[in-house]
Design goal:
Layout (H helix, E strand, L loop, with lengths): L4 H5 L12 H13 L4 E5 L6 H13 L7 E5 L6 H12 L10 E6 L6 H13 L4 E7 L7 H5 L1 E5 L5 H15 L2 E2 L1 H11 L3 H12 L4 E2 L1 H8 L4 H12 L3 H15 L3 H12 L6 H19 L4 H15 L2
Parallel strand pairs: 1-4, 1-5, 2-3, 3-4, 6-7
């Protein structure tokens, strides 16, 4: 698949390659320097370096023998109790090769593990501490049982800042011979929402058509509305021009091929930029939450968006 190539190509090999997680990297580097570390739990949204950091830790600790001492399992594919009882235990009960006294088991997306599997994992973590360390990664720590959390050093990752996204774009731009305009960089930041994997996928897909990347290319391929266009539609509603607002909103939705849920999430971000009273902004955002719930439950997207536009026109004096 084309969209997996750059993600693999630009995967970090050392700590300095990982962007935007300075405090976490500083603490993890200290563990590696000591040659010892506790079990670790990485928490945060997708595409911000959790899996990459686990691989870098293994490579820095074990050197050339890292593949023999590192087991990676994706818990969303293999999420039952048998995975913990068979694969994890078989790997954990053997000693590590080399100077480091333990192996590393990396469980990606471990919030997809069933509660029974997590209970089994809890005992395995306890029993094999002398020969094995666990690195767990998840999007939501609330889905991990408390006994596992209490056995781990918890590291909370944050989405990448604009400067970090820009530095990644500039690196790819230089190595791939691309020319990315300043407007396109802003568009990539908005479209990626701090997710490096999404950023690389969008860039690779756009570069397949042209080496000169414009703002228009990014928005059309990433299925993200230009903030200016959406802001214009919302301003029609604020000015009580209901029909214009509705037609403009539906035109955007159809042109970009967006679902109702995609639209409501982008509308929610643009509401804060409207020139209206803060209390009205709060009420409209609250309404967005209600409408998103209705859409998730199966309501018609067009009717719900129409209802939101009507609400804005009615609310704003």
């Amino acid at each position: 698949m084309i969209n997996s190539l750059w993600t693999e190509k630009y995967r970090p090999e050392k700590f300095s390659d990982i962007k935007g997680q300075k405090d976490i990297i500083k603490r993890v580097k200290a563990f590696v320097k000591m040659g010892n570390m506790p079990h670790q739990l990485y928490v945060g949204p997708a595409g911000i370096g959790k899996s990459s950091l686990a691989l870098v830790v293994a490579k820095q600790l074990f050197g050339d023998s890292w593949k023999s001492n590192f087991l990676e399992l994706n818990a969303s594919d293999e999420r039952g109790i048998d995975v913990v009882r068979v694969k994890v235990k078989d790997f954990a009960r053997t000693k590590a090769l080399g100077d480091v006294p333990f192996k590393i088991i990396f469980l990606d997306e471990c919030d997809a593990l069933t509660k029974e599997a997590q209970q089994a994992l809890r005992r395995t973590m306890e029993n094999y501490t002398s020969t094995c360390r666990f690195v767990l990664s998840c999007n939501y720590s609330s889905k991990i049982i408390d006994p596992i959390q209490s056995r781990c050093a918890v590291f909370r990752f944050k989405p990448l800042d604009k400067k970090d996204i820009f530095s990644i774009i500039e690196k790819i731009e230089k190595e791939e011979g691309l020319k990315v305009s300043d407007e396109a960089k802003e568009a990539l930041f908005i479209a990626s929402r701090g997710d490096c994997r999404r950023l690389e996928n969008i860039l690779q897909s756009v570069s397949a058509f042209s080496k000169e990347i414009s703002e228009e290319d990014v928005y059309s391929l990433a299925a993200v509305v230009k903030p200016k266009e959406l802001n214009e539609s919302l301003n029609f509603a604020v000015k009580h021009e209901f029909v214009k607002a509705r037609d403009s909103m539906f035109k955007i939705m159809l042109n970009y091929g967006l679902s109702g849920l995609d639209m409501i999430k982008q509308i929610q971000r643009e509401i804060l930029k409207l020139d209206i009273d803060d209390r009205d902004k709060v009420r409209i955002i609250d309404k967005c939450g209600e409408i998103e719930f209705r859409m998730v439950e199966g309501s018609d997207s067009f009717i719900q968006l129409e209802a939101l536009i009507a609400y804005i026109s009615y609310l704003v004096k």
